[in-house]
Amino acid sequence: MNMMKKAEFSDDWLTGLRRVVSDPTLYALLKNCPLEIMQRWAFEDIPRGAAICRQGDICQRFSLIVAGEVDVFFEADDGRRYRQARYGKGDMLGELEIFDSRNYICSVVAVSNTQLLSLSQAHFERWLTLDNHFNQRMLRFFSQQYYQLSKKASSDSLYSLHQRVCQALWLRYEQQGTATFLLDKQNLSQEFAATTRSINRILHDLKTLRIIDSDGERIVLLAPEKLKQEAET
């Protein structure tokens, strides 16, 4: 990567390259990328809330998240959004659809200011033929992605909405180490493919049981062990 002359590349490209080289996660993924492919990298800055790709559109590029976070969601005919995953630095977009220019299975929206490294289909396929290291990382990403989606599908089918909401509350309690935390109900409804009204009804039931107290988005956990029981039974 040190062999390139600055005069050959734009300032935006050089800035993006510096970010890749200085970041251990990105560098480990891209360190063996051939120069002929690196020259085709396009760095894109996506503002928070902007759509990156839309469900049903034809995929014509591969993208890697350099910075920021995105939500991947499926949109039902009635407009409800079912969030599949939240991706961040080092995750890939379009990797499933690009090989045969398929339609995007899901839509992707930036949830923070995001930077992408993108390649056309032809250059992406050329990259795979030249870089075995990247090939191996792709396989690991596919495996991890399939595992997480399978785990989510199993949870959605095995547990009731009541249990999944309780599990989400318990997870936030464990992660934050405090009985008081904020809960984004709209985000939770998208994650569980449920209406906000259904989420509110479950929270009301937990409040009636004196397991939680709530004030808007603010949740106060009153009985952690009871919440854990509700999540498991």
TrEMBL record:
One family name in Pfam for this protein: HTH_Crp_2
Stretches assigned to the HTH crp-type domain: 159-225
GO cellular component: cytosol
Keyword annotations from UniProtKB, A to Z: DNA-binding, Transcription, Transcription regulation
UniProt-listed PROSITE patterns: CNMP_BINDING_3 (PS50042), HTH_CRP_2 (PS51063)
InterPro entries referenced in this protein's UniProt entry, alphabetically: cNMP-bd_dom, cNMP-bd_dom_sf, Env_Response_Regulators, HTH_CRP, RmlC-like_jellyroll, WH-like_DNA-bd_sf, WH_DNA-bd_sf
GTP-binding as UniProt keyword: no
Location of the Cyclic nucleotide-binding domain: 43-145
Database matches in CDD domains: CAP_ED
GO molecular-function terms, A-Z: DNA binding; DNA-binding transcription factor activity
SMART domains: cNMP
UniProt-recorded name of the protein: Transcriptional regulator, Crp/Fnr family
Source species: Enterobacter lignolyticus (strain SCF1)
